[in-house]
Amino acid sequence: MSYNDYSELIGLGRVGRVMRFGDIAVKTANVWTVPKDASETTIISYEQTTELNKQSLKHEGHVIKPYHISDTEIRMPYLRQGSLSRYLRTHHDTVDSNRRLQWLQEAAHIIHRVHERRVLVVDIATRNFLLDEDLSLHMCDFTESTIVADDEDMAEFIFEDFTPVKSDIARFGSMMYEVISGNLFAFYVIPDIETDLDDDPVSKTYITWPTDDKLPNTNPLFLGDIIKRCWSREGSLTMQEVCHALDNSGHKKPTDILREG
């Protein structure tokens, strides 16, 4: 591949950017340029940030299956259908329940396989799943992910008073909610805050894990019971459970209930 080919910026995030070169997408780490006459502290900070970005890129390359990975870039196939979030915004009213269920099954199994590799995804969202020509899903962003050490029990691993595995499952519940209802909702648990931050209708932060009365009503929704179990702290505790629930939901899926009544 020649970098003299026509290029297009198709993604920009905290850690890296993605450029398109024909049928190839190339992700590189963001490199911070140290300001002129910067202090020693600033120089160290910029260098550390750049190094962390490079390490995140290498970490991501070991989770996905790219064409090529090096210390400076990841080359991947360019998927013309774009992200699931964009596709849903454009085609929400024409996508049927079977297709939505298939996407969620695929996404759940992808996340389950990632967990089996002792990696916590953290940033689970429709924007981080890309669609192939046949509309199958590919996960594309692991820059926020965390590797759990071999001597840690994934199910019992605790970080900031909570199990990140359950947090991944809750994030997946929010992704399910978006795919099914077309609405956005996510919550975060930060024990150090002084009070719940729940003014934003689509993103809330709680001191402790929220009870059902603080969450959207999913009862009228297709797959609403599975979404609820993903969100509930005492609900689904592994992605394997979520996969099983989705794989066995086909016999009871309605074809017309996609939004809250």
From TrEMBL:
SMART domains in alphabetical order: TyrKc
GO molecular function: ATP binding; protein serine/threonine kinase activity; protein tyrosine kinase activity
Protein kinase domain location: 4-261
PANTHER family, per database record: SERINE/THREONINE-PROTEIN KINASE TNNI3K-RELATED
Protein name: Protein kinase domain-containing protein
